[in-house]
Amino acid sequence: MKKAVLLSLLFLFCFCKQQKQNVQEEDIDEAIMAANKMLDRTSSNLNVDNSISLFTKAEKESETISYKKGIMESNKYLMTIYYSFVQDNKKSLDHGYKAEKIALELNNEQALSQIHEFRGGAFLDMGLIKESHDELQKALALSRKNQNHLRLSSIYLKMLLYTEKTNAPQDTILAYLNKSLHEAERIKDNDQELRSPDEKYYQISYIHTNMGMFYTGIYKPQQPELAEKHLLDALFIFEKRKLSNPTSQISALNALGRFYEATNQPQKAVPYAAKALKLEKGSQQLEERLTAFMVLANSYDTLKEKDSTIKYTQLYSHLSDSLAIIQKKEVNTTLNKISIQKEKSYQANTQRIIAIALTSILILIVSGWLYIRSRNKTARGNYEKLIKKLKTDYHSSVETIEEVEKKIPTTLQISEETQNSILAKLERFENSNRYLKKNISLSSLSHSLNTNQRYLTEIIKTHRGKSFSNYINGLRIDYITHKLYEAPQYREYKISYLAEECGFASHQAFIRVFKQETGVTPSYFIEKFKSQKQKL
């Protein structure tokens, strides 16, 4: 009798323990599902930080009860977050290796495909081209085997980044775009990997928009008919599916507006830019607003509608200037900036020499440094009147912008880790001279840096003190002024050549931006510098 009672109690204990474990596993699965939905870029509920916290908690709880699926899933999603949202390749790879170990034990090829895909992306960011190619090929093989169309579409988009790194021919780029679109269209609406049913259609619209931009900005010769078709298809998806998130739709509207404006069809450009402005009011995408103002100003100018041209030109100029002024960063004169950079560089070299130099050499170095510094001071003295005038002009404009400053929305909450990652990539971009490409856009740069447009806009605004367009133009002007300063032959070139050299579509735009950045025209700068060199 006692033996039977003991057996019954033992059975009851084991049953309760198993039930408790099952409940815990279900709770973990639900937490992982909820955290994954927070990563839906098409939703207003996007919350990366909370998602990381939930996945990290799920990983720890899974380890406590030895729940392998929970360990694999939580690490798999953490891998994608640190790659796609945080841009921390080391953490992405660490979580990927943890997930891979369990995925191999469970023989989960779907998870392995995703792991290889994002590891390939991380390797690509790190400059490991061959390793990246090998990982992406593994991901392709597994996804093809399992006919995973969502993964295949995503992998082909990552292969586009690979083509950029390897300077692949345009037909290869086009092939990957077509393959990505083909696979995206084959995704089932109830695919379990989709965070929401609409995610498939946002993906298709995004690819169409990029194909439209590809046919007008990269493909040679340009194919305006194909570009228009893809851009219209991108917008048709929004209308047919009644997609509610405005962010992607505004970008698609502006892309089509810019296309019609660039192809001299202003009467078609106007309604798309106007609709983008109307949608933008609710989402506060200032860069998109700036683009719409530009399209409307240029289109109305072509249509000879003077009042509307003046209106949108002023709005464009006002918003562009206001975004820069809000950051409280005065624009230093170009020669001052270059002189300071030269002095800093010289001082750094001097410090390295001091560490190994003898006393006699030290004296010579200090003497030479003082001589160079005195020459730089003399050069700056010739510009004191101009500097005073530029500062006066700047301060006189600040007072008229104070009301605009109050209307600017609160900045996005971006984690310090994410900011540092984006800033590191921006620094590499700034050192690469890729900003000299004429077709560079916020969309293409954010895609290249593996971040979203809102984060990139906020980082540039906060840490560079400029809107995206002013940021790119500033880099271009900084490039050409250094060329004028350091290479005498550049001072003999025509303005049109200088404009093309630093990425401007026209010499008129170059002159306008040059004056906006430096306070003087390129011709004045060159003549003044030449006369200064003669005096020296």
Structural class: mainly alpha
The main sheet comes to: none
- Name the poorly predicted regions: 327-334, 353-410
What overall geometry do the principal axes of the alpha carbons give? globular
Number of helices: 25
What string gives the helices and strands in order? Answer: HHHHHHHHHHHHHHHHHHHHHHHHH
Strand content: under 5%
Query: What is the strand tally?
Result: 0
Keywords: DNA-binding, Membrane, Transcription, Transcription regulation, Transmembrane, Transmembrane helix
Transmembrane segments: 353-372
Organism: Chryseobacterium rhizosphaerae
Domain HTH araC/xylS-type: 420-528
Structure in words:
By secondary structure, the chain is mainly alpha-helical. The chain has 25 helices and no strands. The chain has helices at 2-37, 48-64, 68-84, 89-106, 109-125, 129-146, 149-165, 170-185, 199-217, 224-241, 246-262, 266-283, 286-302, 306-326, 334-354, 359-381, 384-398, 402-407, 416-430, 442-448, 453-463, 468-486, 495-501, 507-518, 522-535. The longest helix has 36 residues, at 2-37. The radius of gyration is 28 Å and the shape is globular. This is HTH araC/xylS-type domain-containing protein. The chain crosses the membrane at residues 353-372.
How is the secondary structure organized here?
Blueprint: H1 2-37, H2 48-64, H3 68-84, H4 89-106, H5 109-125, H6 129-146, H7 149-165, H8 170-185, H9 199-217, H10 224-241, H11 246-262, H12 266-283, H13 286-302, H14 306-326, H15 334-354, H16 359-381, H17 384-398, H18 402-407, H19 416-430, H20 442-448, H21 453-463, H22 468-486, H23 495-501, H24 507-518, H25 522-535
